[in-house]
Amino acid sequence: MLLALLLSLIWALQSVLWLRKSESESTADSASLSRIAVFTGASLAYVVTIPFIGYFTTTLVFIPAVSSALGYRKLRILLGAPIIFVLALYILFSLILQVQLPDEPLLQLIGIR
Amino acid sequence: MDILNHILSALPLIFSIDVIIAMIIGTAVGITVGALPGLSATMGIAVLIPLTFSMEPLVALGMVAGIYNGAMYGGSIPAILLRIPGTPAGIATVFDGYPMAQKGQAPLALKISLISSAIGSAVSAIALLALAPPLAAIALKFSPADYFWLALFGMTTIAVLLSSNPVKGLLSTCLGLVVGIVGIDAMTGAERFAFGSMDLLSGINIIVLLTGLFAIPPAIDLAVQHLSQQKEAPIENKKARIRWRPFIPVWIKSSIMGVVIGIIPALGGNIAAVLAWNEQRRSDPDNDQYGKGEPKGVAAPECANNADTAATLIPALTLGIPGSAVAAVILGALLVHGLRPGPQLFRDDPEIVFGFMLTMFVTAILMFVIGRVGARAFVHVLKAPTMLLAPMIIALAVVGIYSIHNSMFEVWLMLFFGLLGYGMERLNIPTAPAVLAVILGPMAEESLRRALLISGGSFDYLVQSWISWIIIAMTAMTLIVPMWKRFRRLKPSRGDQE
């Protein structure tokens, strides 16, 4: 099975050459590139913070933050939809499936959970 | 009949209340996911598998069947109303569906599409029930050597046929092979590619990879997508009457085409749909209406792409060789529940395999009912803001993966694969071969080593049975044919500029 690694290295090299030959023009414009950056950056930050302040708290902030950063403007849906979504997740994961998710210090502060 | 007995014993299991609810939810989710442009059945199932982790196998599989069938129909809703296929398989529905909608016949087009889809799915499920058990019986006679070649065949066909460039496909396969050997070697107990990390010792969970590769890239796409509000075709509530009898030959022909194409690895619903549409246009005597809103031009591709669904599962369930990304994800779902796809599955867990095949059939009928009842709701799905959906998918994927082993490490791994997958997609490297290699690589390795154990280390054993030779010949053909084609294409075009 070391052979597979060797082969994939060869192919990697081959395809680098291939790509260099065929893909001369860049396909992404700067607008969509910044959107990718915003979205992936936010997602990474999201996962980093989960162990500290808990899954539900982070999700409650993450969804409206990202949506508004991407340009969504309807305020009622922006704030309402994540609450419903998180509630549904809470019912499914904590009540029905009994998954042990990281602690929620902020929600505990307000007295939920 | 053995098969009938198995079916009869699986029937009561399916009609338990849990499974029925799961199938209904699955079908509704499937239609919704299919209707959203950019989201496909693959993504829907990939996100939902972790959620089904703690359920009974049949409940989970019923949901999977519902999503799979539902998404195939769902793809036709935006194809007809917006001229955007919701899933790749909806491409051919656009040809006649959108012109029909422009003529104000959108409800009729949706109805034809729904009925055709349901019929296609039902035929396909029957084909699965009829063909899979005998095939599994044959496959049980395969020796480890044959299995080794079969796994190799599966990997090469997907790699070569799924991408325009075989090198990229094979590269993706190799990535999968490397991912597949991470962890403890089952036979000797040696650590491979674990880098001293405790988390990698048990190998990379297939679900982590599946969710990463199939759920994250569509989410990024959704976030990036500029909202190009296309003009929606008017939906008038005109009661349209139509005679169904002329459709019967269309359905028969298209479902057969869909089933046959579905069985062949790497040819998916989109190819089935386009071929069925072409065939329908070719064979109809007054064919100048096709492309301008001919109802039969909606029926043919929709029937064919749904007839493809269960048929794709025939090689997946009987041989353990998934022929497409969706089939790979479904195999992943089976693996999560400790079911090893392959002929042994039919011998060891007949209730579950037959139950799963029956749910494919039942969800076809459910799809019709849910599609009729919820027609209005599913049309509104198209207005869902993608910018809100994208982070929700991430959130769902994260909590799903976390809940499998309560491990943050796997969440990171999933995100890593997601970014990797997005990068691969941007470079036009297909991700499906990698997933297949993760499933088939260990299978190839295991059978190769078993074969060598049997033969006492002699490689002659690998080429001794005629089944091996047939599979080797088929593998060689899939490798040589595209090369030969390219060679022939290159020759005459040498002079002109590329």
TrEMBL record, chain A:
<keyword id="KW-1133">Transmembrane helix</keyword>
<feature type="transmembrane region" description="Helical">
    <location>
        <begin position="77"/>
        <end position="97"/>
    </location>
</feature>
<keyword id="KW-0812">Transmembrane</keyword>
<dbReference type="InterPro" id="IPR009936">
    <property type="entry name" value="DUF1468"/>
</dbReference>
<feature type="transmembrane region" description="Helical">
    <location>
        <begin position="43"/>
        <end position="65"/>
    </location>
</feature>
<feature type="domain" description="DUF1468">
    <location>
        <begin position="5"/>
        <end position="102"/>
    </location>
</feature>
<dbReference type="Pfam" id="PF07331">
    <property type="entry name" value="TctB"/>
</dbReference>
<protein>
    <recommendedName>
        <fullName>DUF1468 domain-containing protein</fullName>
    </recommendedName>
</protein>
<keyword id="KW-0472">Membrane</keyword>
TrEMBL record, chain B:
<keyword id="KW-0812">Transmembrane</keyword>
<dbReference type="Pfam" id="PF01970">
    <property type="entry name" value="TctA"/>
</dbReference>
<protein>
    <submittedName>
        <fullName>Putative tricarboxylic transport membrane protein</fullName>
    </submittedName>
</protein>
<feature type="transmembrane region" description="Helical">
    <location>
        <begin position="352"/>
        <end position="375"/>
    </location>
</feature>
<feature type="transmembrane region" description="Helical">
    <location>
        <begin position="7"/>
        <end position="33"/>
    </location>
</feature>
<keyword id="KW-1133">Transmembrane helix</keyword>
<dbReference type="InterPro" id="IPR002823">
    <property type="entry name" value="DUF112_TM"/>
</dbReference>
<feature type="transmembrane region" description="Helical">
    <location>
        <begin position="200"/>
        <end position="220"/>
    </location>
</feature>
<keyword id="KW-0472">Membrane</keyword>
<feature type="transmembrane region" description="Helical">
    <location>
        <begin position="147"/>
        <end position="164"/>
    </location>
</feature>
<feature type="transmembrane region" description="Helical">
    <location>
        <begin position="466"/>
        <end position="484"/>
    </location>
</feature>
<feature type="domain" description="DUF112">
    <location>
        <begin position="20"/>
        <end position="436"/>
    </location>
</feature>
<feature type="transmembrane region" description="Helical">
    <location>
        <begin position="80"/>
        <end position="98"/>
    </location>
</feature>
<feature type="transmembrane region" description="Helical">
    <location>
        <begin position="256"/>
        <end position="277"/>
    </location>
</feature>
<feature type="transmembrane region" description="Helical">
    <location>
        <begin position="170"/>
        <end position="188"/>
    </location>
</feature>
<feature type="transmembrane region" description="Helical">
    <location>
        <begin position="45"/>
        <end position="68"/>
    </location>
</feature>
<feature type="transmembrane region" description="Helical">
    <location>
        <begin position="118"/>
        <end position="140"/>
    </location>
</feature>
<feature type="transmembrane region" description="Helical">
    <location>
        <begin position="316"/>
        <end position="340"/>
    </location>
</feature>
<feature type="transmembrane region" description="Helical">
    <location>
        <begin position="387"/>
        <end position="405"/>
    </location>
</feature>
